Amino acid sequence: MAAVFLAAAVLPSVQRAARRASTARLLAFTSDMKPQHLNSPNNPRLKLAKRLHARRQREKTGLILLEGQRLIADALDAGLSADFVLVSDEQLRDGALDRLLARVPAEIAASTTAPLFRDVSDTTTPAGVLALFQKPILTLPPSPSLVLVCDSISDPGNLGTLLRASAAAGVDGCLLMAGCADPWGPKALRAGMGAQFRVPMMQVPLPPPEPFETMGDA
């Protein structure tokens, strides 16, 4: 049975940052600047995006896959830099999408057919845009007063929901102990609704420390 703990803790301070920042100049995306069109399922970028559905591939490459305008905008607002953005042809006339694409270098954006996009997407009803980012460094603030400790929260949807609730409650950070799902997996990201970019996190591959008291089950 998965246990959830709440505790006060003082943890090392490391500034949250992306593994690397893009040095490319941001270019405005307008109707006369169409992204490159990808029309082969064997395109290396499409194949890479599809592989990132698996935690092993995310850990191997250091990349995460974000789907939907809101989630991608949350990542950009947090200071992350996209490595690749893919748009379904069906979404190219979306004004809100134009504003999102204006925030990334034009050379990293590409479009593809709706069937190919659905093949790459993790959802049954794709949002029409996805992006690859470097996985952020998970850190905590210098002197947190309240930390959520998650132990063996193996269901990604439950973990994402906990992170979202933590963000709403103003928790200073989250420790993910052994047995927790990957907070950067598709289901956890959808359930978190951007909380992963607002709640500092640290993954700890150990059982919870002895002083922590069990306060409830998840």
TrEMBL record:
Keyword Transferase in annotation: yes
Protein keywords: Methyltransferase, Transferase
Pfam families: MRM3-like_sub_bind, SpoU_methylase
Domain (tRNA/rRNA methyltransferase SpoU type) ranges: 146-204
SUPFAM superfamilies noted in UniProt: alpha/beta knot, L30e-like
InterPro entries referenced in this protein's UniProt entry, alphabetically: Alpha/beta_knot_MTases, MRM3-like_sub_bind, Ribosomal_eL30-like_sf, rRNA_Methyltransferase, SpoU_MeTrfase, tRNA_m1G_MTases_N
Source species, domain of life: Eukaryota
MRM3-like substrate binding domain: residues covered: 43-131
Molecular function GO labels: RNA binding; RNA methyltransferase activity
GO BP annotation list: methylation; RNA processing
Family the entry assigns: Belongs to the class IV-like SAM-binding methyltransferase superfamily. RNA methyltransferase TrmH family.
Name of this protein: RNA 2-O ribose methyltransferase substrate binding domain-containing protein
